[in-house]
Amino acid sequence: MKKTLVFGVSLKSNRYSNIAVNRLQDHNIKTEAFGLKAGKIGEYK
Questions:
Q1: Which residues pair with 33 in a beta bridge?
Q2: Measuring CA to CA, which residue among 5, 10, 1, 12 is closest to residue 31?
Q3: What is the dihedral of CA 12, 25, 38, 3, to 10 degrees?
Q4: CA separation (Å) from 45 to 6, 24, 41?
Q5: How far apart are CA 38 and CA 26, in angstroms?
Q6: What pTM was computed for the model?
């Protein structure tokens, strides 16, 4: 299965990019997330 790449991810839980990554994780879609700050969203660093 291919990975989905999300650019501009925010660590703030109310941001759309953060919500999108969480929804992708909920549907067991492999995801790579990149943002300005290092951190953790759900299972991803």
A1: 6
A2: 5
A3: -130
A4: 13, 15, 6
A5: 22
A6: 0.79
Per-residue pLDDT tens digits for 1-45: 789 999 999 999 899 999 999 999 999 999 888 888 888 886 655
The domain over range 1-45 is classified in CATH as 2.40.50.100 = no
| Residue in 22, 23, 19, 45 with CA at minimum distance from that of residue 34 | 45
In angstroms, rounded to a whole number, what is the distance separating the alpha carbons of residues 8 and 27?
A: 21
In the numeric block, the tokens 């839980």 are attached to 13
**CA separation for the pair 1, 8 (Å, rounded):** 23
Q: Given this model, what pLDDT does residue 43 score?
A: 63
